């Protein structure tokens, strides 16, 4: 019989072994996590809506399957899902007043797949309202705290999912990433997250922010776990016409090494605004890769242009996607004599400032009267970014770049200047704009908090990215123990 | 004061109207365009809805192949260029009938472009060119009742095509002919029911007037949602009068959206068109472009029925059907097929045509494709009549008796004593009784009023239950009255 604390220390891969060997039951695992949640939630606030009863039912069912032959790899593994993914009969608030009492009757494809594989949903996690933000502070549930330093942000918008995994309140979690919303929190919390090639994971049931950029992403403690979770989430879905089929086993051949790979590294002038720890981590990762037999070469990416275009495209699509929240059929009910008064009342009271700011910006960009064909120009510029990025990537198996320019910032840092936080997406939006895959993994630390690095690759090159990150993960584990503070709860112990 | 008639004549000499129609047609797939909800007129309100057509967060559209096939079929039938690659755009606006706050439609690259609708008016035959046909989803239906408005989302997401004509029509008659031709073609092709009263075909009318010979178009007004062909004609006539009166008075025509008031027969203003809504169009990100492959196109082409006019011509050619009846019998592919099998089963096509059009056509259900009477049974009745064994009144009765009982018509005719009486011995009692009962008519006839014999023959027919052979009975009457 394992101690509860030991159970929550295990990675998905290890817990899976223990469950399959029947050393412990899925119900024991779920119970351990649920009790961990009762201890940690008061300070971390990772969850908006815990689903304890559902979890225990699912765990009992998972035990039934584990007793049989051929239970799926992640059967019985507790996980969490961002509260912008629908789960039937469980409130989906999107952290917004607008959907405070909204209970969908349908379940997101990603959650369907996790549930079908026997994973045990522990709850719905916190986010910035409608996934608009990089700090998980703008939520009806209040801010999520970084488990590694409670005064700091867990990042965002998938801050709740990342914090839940980092605080060992879930083995892994599903987040979403429109411009870095899963990678940046994973970076701030010292975790791994894959922003998959656009279309690899179904978006069905995920509340849309910017449909052409949105990706559903796994957030895990290790590269192996991330590959296992990707196996589970990836693949065509008849309900999302933008998906494609994939029969890759992402966990297979992780240890094949990087020998012979050609990896581009973002040049030092691009890192000028980064904290020293980030520059050191980049430099070290490059040398480690070289030491492992990869060829390293400096590369440049149109990051500035990508960020600017991203802000317009994301706002434009959001302004349209959020138009459905008019309070007439569901959501916050507006008062008024006419339909338009009712809509105005619901939307004025239901949306927070950041959401309103982006809707206004997006509507302006799309407007033919005011924007004057602005959006068309932006889409042309996006095509240019795609072409330039493809050209840069052409000679490489992958490109190494930072995920964020620094470690987690303190909560409230951007309270007075809400748009300054947009800069924190500098390194991440390019993968969304181009639809390319990018894998975030812990690359070091500043002596206290972790630094995240990303490998970005060509379309559908996830296996290559996993392989390279896996090789680095093993080399980096010793450094991580030193560079990330001891307060960091459970950090590094997974290795 | 000049009369209305004179006013109209004068106006048509001075001015001409320029008319373009935008016709929305519901595609007859039975399902919605982006989800699998039922799409049928008359279902219990809000019973055919799901997260997709209610615009719930995270619900994604999945395009119906069948809707694309019907849109392409419409395009092929109307001679359009089919764009092998087209895509959807979002039209953003807030309205209670629009669950997502945007409509998924095609702006930049519609599925069909060009094409024409052949029409025939008192002026002769011509073709009305089309600009485009695009696909889109229908909005929900608003029902205004008393002070409140109810929303029926059953209609939200019903597949539509919008057929946009060039502003190429000049008279209300042409507009009506265009609509009728379009309905005939699209319903025969199985693209749509085209029922204006149920909203499966809806028409917006664009109309401007200008002085004859003026190369520039006048300021146009749009009359929204006119819901019968006749109303389109009347709305146009009224609008032409209204606009020319304004021009005559030296006033300006304002670009307006108007509606036709069925009670007053007038058009009335709904709103100004100036400062039009900014729809913030952009490419729909959740649906990949529609790409039509050669194989797919070949399959759609192969599944096309002939054009209804060709089918009518075949009926005229093969079964000598009267032109008016040929049009009636080509209301649907099923009907044409049913009639063709009936006509092919009998050597008496004329009898078949008159019984089918007179007796069977009106008994066919509107939606049900169910044969009222089998071609074999109808052929048996045609034979009885063609061979002179029953009179036409009895043949009509026999159609319904056979349809109801399913029995052999010859058996029914025998049992019900429906067979014609042609034998003189059998007819003699009826003839004699009629002469005895028609003293005045007999006297008239004998005084030279030949027509009086009809009244006596009528008595024979009535007394024989319609079974007397009128030719034989008439001859017998003439012989007896001569003496």
Give the topology.
The complex is a heterodimer of chains A (495) and B (483).
Chain A: H1 4-9, H2 12-20, H3 26-44, E1 47-50, H4 52-67, E2 78-82, H5 109-116, E3 120-125, E4 145-146, E5 149-153, H6 159-166, E6 172-177, H7 183-188, E7 192-195, E8 215-220, H8 223-233, E9 262-266, H9 276-291, E10 295-299, H10 303-321, H11 339-350, H12 353-366, H13 374-393, E11 398-402, H14 429-434, E12 438-445, E13 450-456, H15 462-483
Helix pairs in contact in A: 3-4, 8-15, 10-12, 10-13
Chain B: H1 4-14, E1 15-26, H2 65-77, E2 81-82, E3 85-86, E4 89-92, E5 102-105, E6 112-113, E7 116-121, E8 124-137, E9 141-145, E10 148-152, E11 159-165, H3 172-188, E12 201-211, E13 221-226, H4 229-248, E14 256-261, E15 266-272, E16 282-283, E17 290-291, H5 294-302, H6 308-319, H7 323-328, H8 333-344, H9 349-360, H10 375-386, H11 392-405, H12 409-415, H13 424-437, H14 439-446, H15 453-463, H16 470-482
Parallel strand pairs in B: 13-14
Antiparallel strand pairs in B: 1-11, 1-12, 2-6, 3-17, 4-5, 4-16, 6-8, 7-8, 8-11, 9-10, 12-13, 14-15
Helix pairs in contact in B: 3-4, 6-8, 8-9, 8-10, 9-10, 9-11, 10-11, 13-15, 13-16, 15-16
């Amino acid at each position: 019989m394992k101690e509860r604390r030991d159970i929550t220390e295990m990675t998905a891969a290890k817990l899976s072994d223990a469950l399959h060997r029947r050393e412990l039951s899925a119900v024991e695992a779920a119970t351990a996590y649920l009790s961990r949640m009762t201890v940690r939630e008061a300070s971390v606030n990772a969850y908006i809506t815990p689903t304890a009863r559902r979890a225990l039912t699912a765990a009992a069912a998972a035990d039934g399957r584990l007793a049989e032959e051929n239970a799926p790899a992640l059967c019985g593994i507790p996980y969490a899902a961002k509260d912008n993914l629908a789960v039937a009969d469980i409130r989906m608030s999107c952290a917004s007043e607008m959907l405070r009492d909204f209970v969908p009757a349908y379940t997101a494809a990603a959650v369907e797949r996790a549930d079908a594989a026997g994973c045990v949903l522990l709850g719905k996690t916190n986010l910035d309202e409608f996934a608009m933000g990089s700090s998980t502070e703008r939520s009806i549930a209040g801010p999520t705290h970084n488990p590694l330093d409670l005064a700091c942000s867990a990042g965002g918008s998938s801050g709740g999912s990342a914090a839940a995994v980092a605080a060992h309140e879930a083995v892994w979690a599903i987040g979403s990433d429109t411009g870095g919303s899963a990678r940046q929190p994973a970076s701030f919390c010292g975790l791994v997250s894959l922003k998959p090639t656009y279309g690899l994971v179904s978006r069905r049931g995920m509340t849309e922010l910017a449909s052409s950029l949105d990706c559903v992403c796994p957030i895990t403690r290790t590269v192996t776990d991330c590959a296992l979770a990707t196996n589970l989430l990836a693949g065509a879905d008849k309900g999302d016409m933008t998906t494609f089929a994939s029969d890759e086993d992402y966990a297979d051949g992780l240890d094949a090494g990087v020998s012979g790979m050609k990896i581009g590294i973002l040049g030092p002038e691009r890192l000028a605004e980064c904290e020293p720890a980030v520059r050191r981590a980049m430099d070290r990762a490059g040398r480690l890769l070289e030491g492992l037999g990869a060829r390293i070469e400096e590369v440049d990416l149109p990051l500035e242009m990508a960020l600017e275009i991203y802000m317009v495209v994301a706002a434009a699509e959001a302004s349209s996607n959020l138009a459905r929240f008019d309070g007439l059929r569901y959501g916050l009910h507006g008062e008024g004599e006419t339909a338009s008064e009712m809509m105005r009342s619901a939307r004025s009271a239901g949306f927070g400032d950041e959401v309103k700011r982006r809707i206004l910006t997006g509507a302006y960009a799309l407007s033919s009267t005011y924007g004057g064909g602005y959006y068309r120009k932006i889409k042309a510029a996006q095509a240019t970014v795609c072409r330039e990025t493809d050209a840069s990537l052409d000679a490489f198996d992958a490109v190494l770049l930072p995920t964020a320019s620094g470690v987690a910032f303190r909560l409230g840092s951007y309270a007075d200047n809400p748009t300054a936080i947009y800069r924190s997406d500098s390194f991440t939006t390019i993968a969304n704009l181009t639809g390319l895959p990018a894998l975030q993994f812990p690359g070091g630390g500043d002596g206290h908090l972790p630094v995240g690095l990303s490998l970005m690759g060509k379309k559908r090159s996830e296996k290559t990215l996993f392989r390279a990150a896996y090789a680095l993960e093993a080399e980096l584990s010793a450094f991580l123990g030193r560079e990330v503070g001891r307060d960091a709860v459970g950090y590094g112990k997974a290795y | 004061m000049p009369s209305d008639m004179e006013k109209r004549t004068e106006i048509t000499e001075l001015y001409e109207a320029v008319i373009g129609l935008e016709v929305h047609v519901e595609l007859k797939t039975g399902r919605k365009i982006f989800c699998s909800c039922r799409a049928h007129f008359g279902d219990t309100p809000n019973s055919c809805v799901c997260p997709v057509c209610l615009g719930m967060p995270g619900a994604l559209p999945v395009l119906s192949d069948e809707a694309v096939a019907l849109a392409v079929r419409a395009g092929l039938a109307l001679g359009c260029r089919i764009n092998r690659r087209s895509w959807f755009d979002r039209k953003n606006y807030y309205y209670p009938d629009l669950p997502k706050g945007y409509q998924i439609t095609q702006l930049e690259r519609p599925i069909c472009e060009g094409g024409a609708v052949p029409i025939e008016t008192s002026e002769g035959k011509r073709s009305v060119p089309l600009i485009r046909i695009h696909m889109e989803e229908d909005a929900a239906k608003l029902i205004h009742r008393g002070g409140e408005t109810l929303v029926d989302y059953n209609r939200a997401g019903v597949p539509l095509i919008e057929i946009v004509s060039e502003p190429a029509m000049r008279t209300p008659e042409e507009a009506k002919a265009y609509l009728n031709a379009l309905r005939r073609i699209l319903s025969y092709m199985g693209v749509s029911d085209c029922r204006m009263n149920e909203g499966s075909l809806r028409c917006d009318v664009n109309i401007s007037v200008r002085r004859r010979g003026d190369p520039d178009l006048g300021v146009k007004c749009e009359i929204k949602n006119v819901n019968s062909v006749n109303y389109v004609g009347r709305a146009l006539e009224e609008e032409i009068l209204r606009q020319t009166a304004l021009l005559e008075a030296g006033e300006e025509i304002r670009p307006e959206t108007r509606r036709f008031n069925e009670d007053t027969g007038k058009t009335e203003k709904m709103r100004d068109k100036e400062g039009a809504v900014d729809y913030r169009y952009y490419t729909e990100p959740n649906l990949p472009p529609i790409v039509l492959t050669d194989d797919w196109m070949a399959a759609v082409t192969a599944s096309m029925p002939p054009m209804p006019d060709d089918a009518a011509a075949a009926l005229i050619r093969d079964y000598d059907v009267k032109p008016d009846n040929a049009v009636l019998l080509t209301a649907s592919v099923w009907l044409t097929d049913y009639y063709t099998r009936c006509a092919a089963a009998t050597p008496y096509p004329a009898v078949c045509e008159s019984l089918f059009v007179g007796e069977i056509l009106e008994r066919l259900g509107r939606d049900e494709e169910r044969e009222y009477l089998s071609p074999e049974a109808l052929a048996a009745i045609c034979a009885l009549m063609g061979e002179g064994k029953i009179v036409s009144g009895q043949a009509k009765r026999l159609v319904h008796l056979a349809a109801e009982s399913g029995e052999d018509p010859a058996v029914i005719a025998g049992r019900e004593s429906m067979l014609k009486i042609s034998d003189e011995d059998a007819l003699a009692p009826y003839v004699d009784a009629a002469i005895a009962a028609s003293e005045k008519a007999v006297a008239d006839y004998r005084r030279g009023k030949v027509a009086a014999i009809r009244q006596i023959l009528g008595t024979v027919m009535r007394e024989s239950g319609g079974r007397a052979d009128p030719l034989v009975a008439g001859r017998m009457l003439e012989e007896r009255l001569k003496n």
